[in-house]
Design a protein that fits this description.
The longest helix has 34 residues, at 16-49. The termini are close together. The protein has 21 helices and no strands. It is mainly alpha-helical and 452 residues long. It has helices at residues 7-11, 16-49, 54-82, 84-103, 108-136, 142-166, 174-193, 200-205, 209-218, 237-241, 247-268, 271-275, 282-306, 312-332, 337-354, 356-359, 363-367, 373-393, 395-402, 404-425, 434-442.
Length: 452
Amino acid sequence: MARDAFSALDSTQLTPFHRKVMVLSAAGMFLDGYDITVIAVALPTVTKEWHLSSFMTGALSAAAVIGMFVGALVFGRLTDRLGRKKMYLVNLIGFVVFALIAAFAQNAWELLVCRFLLGLALGADYTISTSLLAEYAPAKRRGNLMTRLGATWFIGAAATYVFALLLLPLGHNMWRVMLVLGAVFALIVLWMRRSIPESPRWLAAQGRGEEANAVLTGLGDTTVDLTGPAAPEHDSPWRTLLSMPLLRMTFFCCGFWFMYTLSYYGITLYTPTILEQVTSSTTGTYVGSLIIALIGVAGAVIGVNLVDRIGRRPLLITGFIGMFIALTVLALWQSPGLAGLVLLLGLAVLFANSGPGIVNLVYPSEVFPTAVRATANGLGTAVSRVGAIIGTLWLPTLINAWGLHRVLWLFVGASIIGLAIAAALAPETKGRSLEELSEEYSGSAATETVGR
């Protein structure tokens, strides 16, 4: 029954409702990319204005990422316990409140605390939006819809530099205005998300089959009887994820995501700072950063269009191979100049975004059962943030001590390890229902069974 219960949902074609869920979930990812990247625009200004040390510069970059680590762990579990919709709305309140407070920070410590609190909301949205969208998406289009979330993150990051160029006349207050704009957009998205119903898969797993049927009927699907007992309660979702048979997929998802963010965040959150080393032009720095970000968006678009055609595994492996080649050439090239630096960083980001940067939102939502799906997304996000923290918190200090080219070998090494994990463990999941995948990777249909 587990595989058949949601066959109507899986077999349906894309509807306006599917597109609405995707757009509103993607709006959260846009804000994630935008709010994370704003600090890259702010750093050159606040470093000079507040006379920051290398460590404090790194701490400001990493503050939101550390917040994401905590937020993903805490809110991932809460999303599995309390439901997708409640958390889908609550976390956006954090986007609004903490972005506004950060905009009025008067010193580095105030900004650091605000960025950490904002990061809690950012980490929560990773787990909530991906779980909700995965549970509504038709199996044959799930990869395409899920990877659009990743692509929208990169669009949000690129939009940061567009706004930076447009608001450049505001001088040192530019980044404050950018945070306020992000808060306003989050408020609009919060209002629009009110109309999204609870996930019928989550409702059924909680033994609330009548409510699940009501949601599906409201969407126009022909449903089966979902009434019945709740799925067996997991004594410890963490123990479930860290025990066989799910341990293999837990290690895979956390491992490749960690290696990707170690390289990616180190590059993207310091793009203007890195480019400043080869140009004295502020406009040139932001234009170069925007070009790199737009190349990254192009990579994500490529991945979105290929994920349901060639599959997740080939994209992931190819992405790590491309990152390895581009970063190795950059590490070996001692004086690339602005154009060379933009080209090679752009290529590294292109491959990163077309592979690991978008399937990282797909795999955790596909290979874990409903009862622990958001928790698994939270764990994967949290572990990946550890890589991001290493890539951001210590990068300024490492560059000062070792030089940029030696630090790049750290990112090359991460690409190699990520490639090894992908080649050894990456499954192919395209076109398969969540129930079918859950049965295969959890070793039991029990966590998904409803209405026996």
